[in-house]
Structure prediction request, 327 residues.
Amino acid sequence: MSLNEKIANIIKRCQKESSCNFEVRYNEPMSLHTTFKTGGPADCWIKPTGDSFPVFTAALMKEAKIESVPVFFFGGGANILVADAGIHGIVVDMGGWTGENIDLQRDKLNGRKNTVLVFYSGTKLDDAAEIAAENDLSGLEFLAGMPGTIGGAVWMNARCYGCEIADVLGEIEMINFNGTEPVLVWRTVYKAEFGYKFSPFQNMDALILSASFRLIPGNREKIRAKMETHRKDREEKGHYRFPSAGSVFKNSPFFGRPSGKIIDDLGLRGLQTGGAQVAPWHGNIIINTGGASSSDIRALIDDVAARVKSKEGFSLEPEILFLGEWE
Prediction:
C-alpha cells in the first residue's frame, strides 16, 4: 500500500467519526501556501471546515499516530521555509477554522476592565485586529498588517512595536495529544510562561484551537489610526514588495543592536544566492526575487549567519522554521 493510499484510508476512517467538510489534495506544492512562495509538495494537504473541525482533526491525529504518518498543522505560511523536497505526511491547513466570539461581560484584571474576545486559531491576524477595532477594543493594533494566523502567533508569541501576544492573552482552547486519546482542554496562560518568540506550546504535543484575548474598550478612530500607522510602516519597510517571511533572524539584547543593523553594517544588503537576496533596503529581510528555491533561501540564511559570526562573533538565530525533507 502506498503512503497516499494509507492516508486516504485514514481520512475515510475519520469521516465515520465526524461528517466534516474538507478539501484534500495529494502531492500539493507548498509554494502555493507559503509567503516565500517556495517549497516542494506535501504528500497530503487537507483543509477541514465547519463546526466538526475539532472532532475530525482529533480523529485524524489519532489515526495518523497509529499509522506512524507525520502530521503538521499549517497556519498562514509565514515564518516558515519548506524544503524543496516537500513535507512527508499530512499537512492540515487551519484556514478553515476561523471566526470569533465576544464575551460582553467585563471582568477585573490587574485593576482594569477588560472585554474578552475569542478567535479561532485559523483567523488571520489582520482580520483579528480589524474585528477588535470594529468592536471598539484596543490591544491588538500591533497585529495590523502582520501575516499569519492567531494559532501561529500564539505558538511563537508574535511581537512587534513593543507589544507581544502574551501581553493580552487570557486562555487557550487546545487538543492535547499526549495521551492515548486526544483531550479537549482550556488552559489559562500567564505571561511569565512566555519569552522572546517563545511560548509553552512549543514544548507540547497539542493543537491550539482558539485563544481568548483580554482587551480594553477604546476609541475606534484612534485604534484604526494606530493600525494604519503600523500597516504603513510595514509597507515602507518593504514587507510586501517581494515574497518573504518578514524578519529572518531574532534580535538579542546581547548584540547591542538589532540583527538587521548588524547585517547592514557589514554591507550585506543585496547579497544574493540564486533567486534569494538580502533585501537591498533591509538587512533582516530575505526576499524571493523570482524563481528562488528554498535551498537558495536557506543557503543565503546560512551565509549571512556565518559572515556575522566571523566578523562580529554573534551567532544569529533564525526565527524562521525549516520544515520538510532537508538533506
Summary: The two ends are 26 Å apart (CA to CA). Residues 194 and 200 are 6 Å apart (CA to CA). The chain has a mean pLDDT of 93.
